[in-house]
Specification:
heterodimer, A: alpha/beta, Mannitol-specific EII, Chain A, five-stranded mixed beta sheet, 6 helices, globular, B: alpha/beta, Rossmann fold, 4 helices, 5 strands
Chain lengths: 152, 103
């Protein structure tokens, strides 16, 4: 799978307006569902929250990476939101401004989808990438940046 | 100073790779040589050889789930840390690992 198959620009939501973590997760998951990437929105949300309950996915750099690998996912995907106002991740940690929701489908054979997602995870600790996220005017700008990083 | 590390996390998608990346970047900045093996959804990658393990001064173990092929590291002086701590406070973790194992 290619980056663009996994991270579609329709699933990159810039300046999302939400008031809490649950709303942010719901909006991102709903975007994935609407683009035909889930078998079950409800099943997916249950698994995302289960993972979150093991340990918060707030990375303390303004970035949270909720994620799931479960039967409810039809197509491996990444959805991303830049929040208009940072929110409390309900873990006693710092506020979250960027949410990367990572979904891996057990139906996807091979490893290319995992390679793409692991590369995105690597980028999340790069200040230059975080700085791009704060100024990007559209989803394609973000996708192109990741594409260039992967080509290195 | 030679460092080796293994990272792994429950789903094996995100923390494993973020922690590995963060270790490499921070070790480089601090002037240490490091090799990091990841045990994630992609299986064992960048596998540490017996030579790597033998030559290492410090072994940082950031495994949130059971380490695979753990017997390779039986003789290592090991510093344990969670992947999330490693991502959030990487420099502190490396400094502590070196201090604790040299003490």
């Amino acid at each position: 799978m290619t980056l663009q198959q996994i991270m579609a620009s329709e699933n990159i939501i810039l300046d999302m307006e939400v008031t809490d973590k649950n709303q942010a997760l719901n909006k991102l998951a709903t975007a994935l569902d609407k683009s035909g990437r889930l078998h079950s929105l409800k099943g997916f949300m249950v698994d995302v929250k289960k993972r979150e309950s093991i340990e918060s996915t707030n990375m303390e750099m303004g970035v949270a990476i909720p994620h799931s690998k479960c039967e409810a996912i039809a197509v491996s995907s990444v959805a991303m939101a830049r929040l208009k106002e940072p929110i409390d991740w309900e873990d006693g940690g710092s506020l979250v401004k960027y949410v990367f929701l990572l979904a891996v489908s057990p139906e996807d054979d091979g490893i290319t989808h995992l390679e793409v997602i692991s590369k995105i995870a690597e980028l999340l600790i790069e200040e230059s990438f975080l700085s791009l996220l704060s100024t990007a005017i559209d989803g394609m700008t973000i996708i192109t940046y990741i594409q260039n990083y992967m080509a290195q | 100073m030679k460092l080796i590390a293994v990272t792994s996390c429950p789903v094996g998608m995100a923390h494993t790779y973020m922690a590995a990346s963060s270790l490499k970047k921070t070790a480089k900045r601090l002037g240490y040589e490091i090799k990091v093996e990841t045990q994630g959804a992609l299986g064992i990658q960048n596998r540490l050889s017996s030579v790597d393990i033998e030559e290492a001064d410090v072994f940082i173990l950031a495994a949130d789930v059971a380490l695979q092929e753990a017997e390779r590291f039986d003789q290592c002086a090991t510093y344990k840390v969670s992947t999330s701590q490693l991502i959030k406070k990487c420099e502190k973790s490396i400094t502590e690992a070196i201090a604790s194992l040299q003490a």
